[in-house]
């Protein structure tokens, strides 16, 4: 346990991912430190989601190694892997809620599998999670097809947080939310990170999120991390894409 | 770092202090729930109650909620239980769970006999709606077809050809194989039973009439309903789920014309072809078995077949094919467009598509049998 604190919570080394002949990630290295909110940016199609899915284990890699919570995911046993999966939560870009279950059943699904607790506690925790992500209790009995896009994101976050994980992956969490909702969402992520000691790996395009929520930013380009550091480092960078990204019209609007 | 959670009770005069220690997290949730349930039963009426959480090593939503639940149940009348020793880190979490209203969950209504009867009643009443839906779709398809006749350029040839490939060309191997085997089985059974009367040769009559009039087209229609009807429903259903059909509508396209008509055309053209191939394969299989198993020489088989069947038998069979195709196509498209937002709904409608498709095919076959009998064919 003591070693885990010093070591990064996610440690990605020389990852290469290929689809056919297109190399999406090419010898990528990345560390995510315990307790930080890492914002992950890059041009569309650069492979941000691919990296996320590779770390979670949904996309096979050609080469490299991934350690999460100090466990090498390639050489781990099923039990070890299960334990790691229990400690992370994933928010997919489209929500990926189970369409035939209600919101309440969606949020309780991981609890039912991993914890032996009473229905009453599960219901109460579900209500707590719904309140945390800013939804009304009435939403609990609705089906995903009856929710708006923003509500789907919130429910998906509540499901990702349902076991109080140590690490959450958020794939564009604020896309499709109105600016106020997105601001609340950033605030929420910050609060959860403070209270639960959460580590957050956030793929985002939202400059506001980068400024207000993220501790550190990593930039993906050409299959590698081209820069990593604080928002000030990003602004000082001379890399052409970064200059455009952080000094463009929209960035100036956010900064003022 | 992780240690078992505990809740110690320290009484100080009129005050009661509950001291929480250890790890109050999701992993210990079952234990925590028991501890809190025990503590809730605390008797006595102390003047003030404190829940001291300063010794808690780790707290998450589960732990915070259970402490809050304990606080609420110990708060009776004028005595308000307090949470003490909250570190700055955890206070916002506790504030968060404090806003939760408990018992807001409404349980879904239990299953009752009345409820089941109601379900049956609704299903029966729904039959009328189903038929109306089919007639509606038939009308819409015919209207789209007439529009295409007037403006032939709006016909989607590429799409039709693509669906022809899917439902006709790719179906040939499996249809031919199955009908071939069925022909073999009919011939074998016929010979086996007719032999006792010395009437082996009549198996050719039976095979010819049965295959051309009934089995060929009926079997092929059932297979097509299972193979292509389900595919149509799943395709249209998932397009409906992803709002693709709404997108078509907003661009000014008629989904019936763009999606349904090409599929219907492909099916109506494909089924007669498949029924013909199926009938030929069944006759071939039957002839093969008659020769190898029944000792009927191929020449004798063909001569007998020529006498036994007329073109009428063939026409009776093949005329049914396009009608059955239309029925299958309409059922499949109606079900596909009725899919709601969930994966479960897609599964239900695909099942319904195949079941209803096969049912209507058999009903149509019966109607045709009555019709042909009354006109003497």
TrEMBL record, chain B:
Q: Which PROSITE patterns match?
A: STAS
Q: Which GO terms describe its molecular function?
A: phospholipid transporter activity
Bilayer topology term: Multi-pass membrane protein
Give the primary localization class: membrane
Q: Where in the cell is it found?
A: Cell inner membrane
Matching entries from Pfam families are given as: MlaE (PF02405)
Which residue windows are transmembrane per the record? 124-147, 167-187, 199-225, 264-293, 314-338, 358-376
List the NCBIfam families.
Answer: MlaE family lipid ABC transporter permease subunit
Q: State what protein this is by name.
A: ABC transporter permease
- Origin species, per record, is Bradyrhizobium frederickii
């Amino acid at each position: 346990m003591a070693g885990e604190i010093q070591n990064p919570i996610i440690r990605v080394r020389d990852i290469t991912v290929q689809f056919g002949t297109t190399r999406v990630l090419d010898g990528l290295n990345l560390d995510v430190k315990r307790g930080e909110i890492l914002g992950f940016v890059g041009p569309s199609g650069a492979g941000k989601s691919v990296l996320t899915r590779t770390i979670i284990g949904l996309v096979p890699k050609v080469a490299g190694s991934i350690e999460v919570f100090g466990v090498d995911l390639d050489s781990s046993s099923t039990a070890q892997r299960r334990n790691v999966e229990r400690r992370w939560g994933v928010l997919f870009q489209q929500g990926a809620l189970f369409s035939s279950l209600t919101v309440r059943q969606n949020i309780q699904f991981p609890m039912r599998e991993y914890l032996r607790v009473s229905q009453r506690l599960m219901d109460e925790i579900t209500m707590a999670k719904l309140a945390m992500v800013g939804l009304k209790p009435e939403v609990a009995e609705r089906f995903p097809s009856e929710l708006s896009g923003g509500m789907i994101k919130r429910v998906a976050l509540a499901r990702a947080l349902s076991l109080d994980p140590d690490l959450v992956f958020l794939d564009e969490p604020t896309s499709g939310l109105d600016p106020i909702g997105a601001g609340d969402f950033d605030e929420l992520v910050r609060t959860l990170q403070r209270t639960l000691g959460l580590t957050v790996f956030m793929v985002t395009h939202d400059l506001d999120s980068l400024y207000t929520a993220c501790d550190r930013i990593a930039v993906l380009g050409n299959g590698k991390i081209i820069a990593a550091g604080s928002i000030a480092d990003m602004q000082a960078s001379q890399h052409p894409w970064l200059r455009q990204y952080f000094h463009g019209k929209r960035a100036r609007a956010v900064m003022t | 770092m992780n240690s078992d959670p505990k809740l110690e009770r320290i009484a100080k005069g009129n005050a009661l202090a509950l001291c929480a220690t250890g790890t109050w997290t999701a992993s210990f949730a079952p234990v925590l729930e028991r501890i809190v349930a025990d503590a809730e039963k605390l008797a006595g009426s102390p003047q003030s109650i404190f829940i001291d959480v300063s010794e808690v090593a780790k707290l998450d939503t589960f732990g915070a909620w259970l402490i809050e639940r304990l606080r609420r149940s110990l708060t009776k009348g004028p005595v308000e239980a307090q949470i003490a020793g909250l570190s700055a880190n955890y206070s916002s979490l506790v504030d968060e769970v404090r806003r939760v209203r408990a018992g807001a969950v409404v349980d879904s209504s239990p299953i009752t006999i009345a409820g089941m009867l109601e379900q049956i009643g609704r299903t029966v009443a729904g039959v009328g709606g189903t038929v109306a839906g089919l007639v509606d779709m038939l009308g819409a398809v015919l209207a789209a077809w007439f529009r295409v006749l007037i403006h032939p350029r709006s016909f989607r040839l590429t799409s039709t050809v693509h669906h022809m490939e899917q439902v006709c060309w790719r179906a040939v191997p499996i249809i031919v194989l199955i009908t071939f085997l069925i022909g073999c089985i009919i011939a074998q059974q016929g010979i086996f039973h007719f032999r006792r009367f010395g009437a082996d040769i009549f198996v050719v009559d039976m095979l010819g009439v049965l295959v051309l009039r009934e089995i060929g087209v009926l079997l092929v229609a059932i297979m097509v309903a299972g193979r292509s009807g389900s595919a149509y429903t799943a395709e249209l259903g998932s397009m409906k789920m992803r709002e693709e059909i709404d997108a078509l509508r907003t661009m000014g396209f008629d989904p019936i014309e763009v999606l349904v008509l090409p599929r219907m055309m492909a099916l109506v053209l494909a089924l007669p072809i498949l029924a013909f191939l199926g009938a030929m394969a069944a006759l071939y299989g039957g002839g093969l078995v008659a020769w190898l198993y029944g000792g009927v020489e191929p020449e004798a088989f063909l001569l007998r077949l020529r006498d036994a069947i007329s073109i009428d038998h063939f026409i009776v069979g093949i005329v049914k094919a396009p009608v059955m195709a239309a029925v299958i196509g309409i059922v499949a498209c109606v079900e596909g467009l009725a899919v709601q937002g969930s994966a479960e709904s897609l599964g239900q409608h695909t099942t319904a598509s195949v079941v209803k498709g096969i049912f209507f095919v058999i009903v149509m076959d019966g109607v045709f049998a009555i019709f042909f009998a009354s006109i003497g064919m």
